[in-house]
Amino acid sequence: MASLSGKVAIVTGASRGIGRAIAERLAKEGASVVINYAHSADEAQKVVQAIASTGGRALAVQANVSQLEDIRRLFQVTVAQFGKLDIVVNNAGVAIYKPLADATEQDFDTTFGLNARGTFFSLQEAAQQLGEGGRIVSISTAATAMGSPGGSFYAGSKAAVEQFSKSLAREIGDRGITVNVVSPGFTDTEMLASNPQYKEIGAKMSPLGRLGQPQDIADVVAFLVSDQGRWITGQNIEAGGGVV
Known about the structure:
With 244 residues, the chain is α/β, with parallel strands linked by helices. The protein has helices spanning 17-28, 41-53, 68-82, 105-129, 143-146, 152-172, 190-193, 197-205, 214-225; strands at residues 8-11, 32-37, 58-62, 87-90, 135-139, 178-184, 236-239. It has a single domain (8-238), classed as Rossmann fold (3-Layer(aba) Sandwich). It has a seven-stranded parallel sheet with strand order 3-2-1-4-5-6-7, sandwiched between helices.
């Protein structure tokens, strides 16, 4: 029997990249997965179809998780469709790289609005709706540990996610709910492609000599949300191939 058989999961930002890999991995383990997307409806449907083609269950739900009303609707639709919620993976995010001195108010608001504010209220909904033994994983970045030119407000927004998660782990642990963070390093996604200088740098920085792949991150998340991950909570797992 698959390790997540009978479980219901939300994965935000799941139409591509790391989010898609996580959604497909959880479905492979037997979970029914809600594929959240903001704008990429066609891509989200492709993920649903890919999961269905292997016998899994998935549903695409549009919601801009920088907006509180959309977050609440996402959770409501999930419970209405599947009857419960067991796993929440906060993956949706945006990375704008720019020197701090040149950043605009819009750059700041866009980044913190999705990465920090959106994750905060997704965590809040998860805390209210998950049952006993639920699992929460939020995706951060190795940039919070490394520091990088131009990454001040991206890393800052993700550092907030790490602190939210540490506190929440202690607030809801008595319900058997684990709350963790996974911090990818240089991972071969569209987000990294928009900053091509980091591809070569990332491969050189890893002792393993390559970039990460979305599946590398998905495998870590799948472990944390499984029963085997029951004794890990309040942690930030650096899944970056040793770059930090």
